[in-house]
């Protein structure tokens, strides 16, 4: 396969149902299994019901190429970029042709779901383990559109939107995105991929579907680029069954996501969904009021607010709550620790609600954990422990190793 002069023979395009489907269940993306521009609420019927601890292989579809400013025609848009028709996703074509959204009232994102997890109740935590992420196509799009992004009023210049088609190829065993220095020039800029899902969430209470752009306590469009293979996201369950969903797939994103979008491109995700009963969740983390990420090294509380300064303050409060509850530090000592040892990163500033996340190293508290008999967080391929990650992926590699390989 060749795209825009770039060889991409290493890729097999993952059309619906094609290729490996390693989960206990498979959920394709179709007009019947996705929402476009809105997120699920308690009134929505599940498209799949599973038991806690089961895995689901889920096809996600990027909104780039199906939006109205791309003609609502992925076949026409991507063939115009040099993509062969058989390398354009059939489900993207079906969604663009079969669904509509209110451009003035709805967001751009396509989310697959909701999935009902048996036994999940409000007050519990839902743990979503990212087991495997596979690119479905060897290309994506980065967009700055309609006066949005970090430089509102400055960029884009002279147009309502600028979309940059970005081929992907394998170099030295790593996947990279390719950009030119000038329009039409040779693609001499290569940056590593680190795929993740920008949107993972649970349904909100009530009968009103939330807008797909702003994140919140339900998760949604949190755009935290740490959520690569081998990591986990914990979300407070808000309705019976949790009604989980995922979407907004990214191949790569810098903290801030300043132009408005990341390298947006469709992924096939295999995820494990686990219900953490409230009592266990409180003993492990204290009160979790919003998204909490866990990587091989860090616990990552979050802060969300339309004002970036307030998002920072919310993240500091969430981090204090976590450190005090999990390790028993007095408030002023927890505050001192965070100031000396914890990085607070800007997740994104472009989603109506800004995001900040803190990276708290669990190893810094190893002596406290050992004294309390809490085992270290380690790889658990069987996924048998309630807080142990499953990093098992295809071909005998681990999510951690693959994420490292991608830079």
Automatic annotation (TrEMBL):
E.C. code = 3.5.1.4
InterPro entries in the record, alphabetically? Answer: FmdA_AmdA (IPR004304)
**Keyword field:** Hydrolase
For this chain, one GO molecular function annotation is: amidase activity
Q: Which domain of life is it from?
A: Bacteria
Coiled coil ranges (UniProt) are none
The protein's name is Acetamidase
Q: Which organism is it from?
A: Microbacterium lemovicicum
Gene name tied to this protein: amdA
